[in-house]
Amino acid sequence: MIKVGLGYDLHRLVEGRKLLLGGIHIPFERGEDGHSDGDVLLHAISDALLGASGLGDIGSFFPPEEPQWKDADSAQLLKTVVSKVYDEGWKIENLDCVIKLEKPKFIPYRTQVIKSIADILQIDENQVFVKAKTGEKLAEIGRSEAVEVWSVCLLSR
Question: What is the DSSP string of 63-121?
Fold first, then answer.
């Protein structure tokens, strides 16, 4: 059996927070506003995996109204998710992600982010790809007020 999952997330960029993408700190004057550490990329990946496996979504696993998830490490949350996915007999075939971010430029960090995601998911780096697009200076992405991510995964069992 083969299943596809789609994950999506959007976070406002604010001062006083770290910008985290795929578990990697990206130097920038603003970071994601969120209940957890705000790693929008890991959140979208979690939702893609949960959707494909039929296990739910990130909000049902880690409700933002619960104080225990305040400032939670999104890498640890994703490890919990992928463990459940693997327990159900699923195997990750590949993962493809798009980050929409005006600044900072993502390309210098891509290799490090791919390695981090592959390590978290316990898969080969060649099963993960992450690309970035800008907002072409339009709307909240183009004004560097937010970061948005789409993630697609292919699972098999």
Answer: -TTSGGGTT--HHHHHHHHHHHHHHTT-EEEEEEEEEE-SSS-SGGGHHHHHHHHHHHH
Measured in whole angstroms, the distance separating CA 33 from the mean position of its chain's CA atoms is 14
Alpha-carbon distance of 39 to 7, in angstroms, equals 13
Q: How far apart are CA 36 and CA 134, in angstroms?
A: 25
φ, ψ (nearest 5 deg) of residue 3: -135, 145
pLDDT digits (tens, 9 = 90+) for 59-89: 998 988 888 888 899 999 999 999 999 999 9
Q: Is 5:147 a contact under the CB 8 Å cutoff?
A: no
Q: Residue 9: how many CA atoms within 13 Å on its side-chain side? A: 26
Q: CA 147 to CA 58: how far, in whole Å?
A: 18
Residues of the chain with pLDDT under 50: none
Phi/psi of residue 145, nearest 5 degrees:
-95, -10
CA distance 133 to 10: 14
